[in-house]
Design brief:
The chain is an alpha/beta fold. It has two domains: 156 residues, NAD(P)-binding Rossmann-like Domain (Rossmann fold), CATH 3.40.50.720; 92 residues, ProC C-terminal domain-like fold, CATH 1.10.3730.10. Helix content is 54%, strand content 13%. It contains twelve helices and eight strands. It has an eight-stranded mixed β-sheet, with helices on both faces. The longest helix is centred in the last third of the chain and has 22 residues. The two termini are 38 Å apart. 31% of the residues are buried. Bound molecules: NADP nicotinamide-adenine-dinucleotide phosphate.
Amino acid sequence: MKIAFIGGGVMGEAIVSAILDKRLSRPPSITVSDVSQARRQYLEQKFGIAVTDDNRLAIAKAEVVLLAIKPQSLAELLPELNGQFKPGQLVLSIIAGVNIGTLRRGLSHNRVVRAMPNTPAQIGEGISVWTATAEVTEMQKRWAGSILSAIGQQIYVDDEKYLNMATALSGSGPAYFFLFIEALAAAGEQIGLPADMAQQLVLQTMLGSGHLLQKSGKEPAELRRMVTSPGGTTAAALAELEKGGFNNLVERAVSAAYKRAKELGGEQ
Ligand SMILES: NC(=O)c1ccc[n+]([C@@H]2O[C@H](COP(=O)([O-])OP(=O)(O)OC[C@H]3O[C@@H](n4cnc5c(N)ncnc54)[C@H](OP(=O)(O)O)[C@@H]3O)[C@@H](O)[C@H]2O)c1
């Protein structure tokens, strides 16, 4: 697969690395275009791929063009690439909050996949939700699916509305998790644990619980009940969380992220 990247930042690098690991493509078939000379040099040395600062040159021979720039760089990119794509090329965008209509119009191109990955993609543990325009062929959908599978799990949806919802849940989700870890570790320190021990206890508890959930095949509510004996320590903590409106607070947080995702994508 001949693949070009516009933007070789954190996500671009993660995807290049995963594609090479999974042998979906080989270094001579990958070109990264990036405005930063330091990034180009780094990526060329690390992966032996082709690099350029010329976006038009980068896309010329590619079968798949992966857009991995920040949303704020898009206004500059669209006019530069408008009309430059051949009808058969696939554009795969991971740019947060930029909807397919904007890309279709801005690039004058119809074969577009929009994906929403998340940061654990950097270690192949991400999850992406993606959709494609009707013009994208079955083979191109398989390509997109295999690229996204290289950085973790992937879920195809046939309605773009789910992308903003996924943004609020899995896109922003790692930050919710990290915040909860920070809060738990701070609470551990508050009751007298040394900081590094609190951190270790919390981290392994989160990882272990996640793996237990995955491997046991049980529902989270069932596993929660199993550690919650009546009148016990866990019950005391959960009662406090309930009193503070924990579930409702999480719901409001996710709704706020969803609202913001729609606003950024130009919807209300
Ligand atoms: N990071 C994540 O976990 C994550 C998760 C889901 C979705 N996303 C989305 O993925 C996209 C990329 O994120 P990222 O974290 O990889 O961003 P990033 O690290 O900032 O990478 C973007 C790269 O593209 C370069 N660039 C900017 N404008 C360009 C242009 N016109 N032509 C060529 N290169 C250009 C940037 O250079 P300069 O820095 O010099 O501008 C930078 O090296 C964003 O839309 C983000 O929302 C990211």
